[in-house]
Design goal:
- Helix content is 58%, strand content 7%.
- By secondary structure, the chain is mainly alpha-helical.
- The protein has a two-stranded antiparallel ribbon with strand order 1-2.
- The termini are far apart.
Length: 245
Amino acid sequence: MIQKIPSLLFDIYLFVVSLLVFWPIKILIPPIHKLKNNSDESFFEEVSENENMNRVSKIYSDIHCYSAWMRFALYILFPAYLISKKLPSFLFEKKTKPVRFTPNQAASMVLAQMTQNIKATKTVADDCGADYIFCLQPTLMDGKHYPTEYDLRFIEARAKTKFYQFTLLDYFKKYYEMIIRTFSKYDGLKNNFFNLSNIFHTEKKQRFVDTCHIGEEGQIEIARKLASFIFEKEKKQKKNTEKWS
C-alpha cells in the first residue's frame, strides 16, 4: 500500500495541473493569437542571433529554456519530476510478453497494414481526381546487390539488428518479395505500382548512404526514372481520352 502512495500523488498532481493550468491556457491562447493577428502590427519579429541567445535562460544544470512558456511549464511540472523519483522501479519495467514470429508472418502483418493504407490513400486521390502512384524504393536490405565496401559495412551492421527473433535482413527480404508479388498482381493498383527496388542492382558505384537512404547521385537517377514513369502514364491517359472523345 505504501508503494502506491507516490504513484497516486503523481497521477493526482498531473491531473490537477492539466485541469487547472494547461487546459485553461490551451483555451486562451487561440483567441490571443487571433487578436494579435488582426492588428496591423506584425506578429513576427526579426531577432539577431545575439539577442536570441540572450533570451535563453538556464534554469538547472544543462536544462535551457528558449521561451517564457517553456520555463513556466518546466517550473509547473518540476514537482512531478521529484515525485517520479519516489516511484517504485517496477512501474517502469516492460511487461510485454515475448512474441514468436517467423519472417513470413511479420512481413505479412506489415504488408496487410500497408495495403490498407494505400487503398485508403488511393480512394482519397480518386475522389479528388488525382492519379495515385505507389513507388517502391530501393534498399540494400533486399539482399540483391552490395557493390561497394561501404555497402558491405552497412549490411554487416544491420545483420546484427534483431527484429523479433530473427534479423532485420531476413524480414526485409521477405517483405520486399511480398510487396512486389502482391502489387504486381493486384488489379486495383498494378497500373499505379512503380517498382524501383531494382534500380541499382547492376550499379557498381556508391549510391547508398546507409542501408535505406540514397545519396545525391542516386536521388537524381530515381527522380529521372519516376518522371519518365509519370510522363508515360500521362501520354497513355491522353491517348485514351482522345480515343473516346
